[in-house]
Amino acid sequence: MVVQTQRDEVTWYKCEACGLMFDAKDDARQHESDCDGEDPSYIQ
Ligand SMILES: [Zn+2]
C-alpha cells in the first residue's frame, strides 16, 4: 500500500511494505506492483 506523507512541506509517497519513498505517486504505485515486501506472512 502507498501512503502519502509530508516532510519539509514536500509530499512524498511511501511504500508501506518496504519503506521506500518516492516523490511521484506514479513511481510509488509502479514500485508497489513490483514490490516483494508486501504481506510478510511469516510475521504474526
Ligand atoms: Zn516496496
Structural features, described:
It is a single chain. By secondary structure, the chain is α+β, with helices and mostly antiparallel strands. It has one domain (2-34). The protein contains 1 helix and 3 strands. The chain has one helix at residues 25-34; strands at 2-7, 10-15, 21-22. It has a 3-stranded antiparallel sheet with strand order 1-2-3. It starts with a strand and ends in a 10-residue tail after the last helix. 7% of the residues are buried.
Give the ordered list of helices and strands: EEEH
**Strand-residue proportion:** 25-35%
Coarse shape: globular
What does the largest sheet look like? 3 strands, antiparallel
Structural class by secondary-structure content: alpha+beta
If you compute it from the alpha carbons, what radius of gyration comes out, rounded to the nearest whole angstrom? 11 Å
Number of helices: 1
Helix content: 10-25%
pLDDT below 50 for ≥5 consecutive residues: which ranges?
Answer: none
- The chain-level mean pLDDT equals 88
Instruction: Please state how the strands of the largest beta sheet are arranged side by side.
Output: 1-2-3
Assembly state: single chain
